[in-house]
Write a structure and sequence with these properties.
Length: about 325
């Protein structure tokens, strides 16, 4: 089976709705057709300051959310990035074939440093897409299911793979991003022109997977919409309603066009309640299962340790090929 690879940063105590829809729902749907690797990318999480004890806890919490969200831990390899040393090693090798200008064009870095300025950013934050390329290339990955904000990083990965192969001989497989049509980008419920993000200043517009269901429903019912009253998708004129349609589509499997027809002529109150109900119906059991899994941290640690060994076998072999090709062995 071809390989699938993806990962999420353990940089908050809970996934948000954007991660859930952009990543986890897709992973769950695709995992049966691929040899799937899902990592908890802790090395990426330390590109911004972390508290060690908190980070340790967030890694377990994220592992529990992967499993509770439907990742099959008996089939997929669910592991922690830093447990496999080949990631950092290959990132160094790839850094030597990445252009400084090329890395400077990554829009996520520009966005993330827009507020605090580049002076305050770490070099790790700058080179982070190269580490992501290493993650993907180590596993001979065919497909990378991600939200739309990661597309440029997967394209960089492809470019680096092709450049390396041209310079040093066939070594890496060039991966393809897989981005869902509806719900590739979920926006903040309070400011629907910005994407839902862990680093937002205010948490009212963010639905956290581990929020209690009443809070989730309330956040959705308080989502910012508009005054025109029509339930139709129009990203420019009606970002709030469009976002809610995308969310409802992700949770019901109905295309946005079908939902527009279904809710035509109904008020925003009815519509928002339908969105809240659909989200809560799916997320409440995921939350409960996460909490159950977290009650046995030793079991989670055992699973992560066993999977790290399996991941390292694949990753070390690829790293060996790259070292050899570059003249380092
Ligand atoms: P991260 O941790 O920021 O986000 C994890 C996943 O969630 C998706 N996502 C969204 N999708 C839709 N709407 C949103 N508002 C939204 N916010 C986040 C992201 O696109 C992503 O799929 N660099 C990556 C992690 C990573 C990775 C990898 C991914 C490291 N190595 C290798 C794939 C393959 C990141 O920071 O994602």
């Amino acid at each position: 089976q071809p390989r699938l690879y993806s990962g999420i940063q353990p940089s908050s105590g809970s996934l948000h709705l954007g991660n859930y829809i952009g990543a986890l729902q897709q992973w769950r749907a695709m995992q049966g057709d691929f040899d799937a690797f899902f990592s908890i990318v802790d090395l990426h999480a330390i590109t911004v300051p972390q508290q060690p004890e908190v980070l340790r806890e967030q890694v377990r919490t994220l592992a529990a959310q992967y499993i509770a969200g439907g990742i099959d831990p008996d089939r997929a390899c669910l592991y922690v990035q830093s447990h496999v040393s080949a990631h950092a090693q290959l990132a160094w090798l790839l850094g030597t074939i990445t252009g400084f200008g090329e890395a400077s064009r990554m829009t996520q870095f520009k966005d993330k440093t827009a507020k605090g300025g580049q002076e305050a950013a770490s070099v790790g934050l700058f080179t982070y897409p190269i580490l992501m390329a290493a993650d993907i290339l180590l596993y001979d990955t065919a497909v990378v299911p991600v939200g739309d904000d990661q597309k440029q990083h997967v394209e960089l990965t492809r470019d680096l793979a092709e450049r390396f192969n041209k310079r040093f001989g066939q070594t890496f497989r060039a991966p393809k991003p897989v981005i869902r049509a509806d719900g590739a980008r979920i926006y903040d419920l309070q400011s629907p022109e910005s994407k839902m993000s862990k680093s937002a200043d205010n948490d009212k517009g963010i639905v956290w997977l581990l929020d209690d269901p009443a809070k989730t429903a309330k956040k959705i019912r308080s989502a910012v919409t508009d005054t025109d009253g029509a339930i139709r998708a129009d990203r420019a004129e009606k970002p709030g309603v469009t976002n809610l349609l995308g969310i409802l589509s992700a949770f019901t499997g109905s295309p946005v066009a079908t939902l527009e027809a279904e809710f035509s002529g109904q008020g925003y109150g009815v519509f928002k309640t339908a969105v809240a109900d659909a989200v809560v119906a799916e997320l409440a059991p995921v939350r409960e299962r996460t909490l159950e899994l977290l009650a046995d941290p030793a079991e989670l640690d055992r699973l992560l340790a066993a999977n790290a060994e399996r991941a390292a076998e694949v990753a070390d072999a690829t790293l060996g090929r790259a070292l050899e090709a570059m003249g380092l062995r």
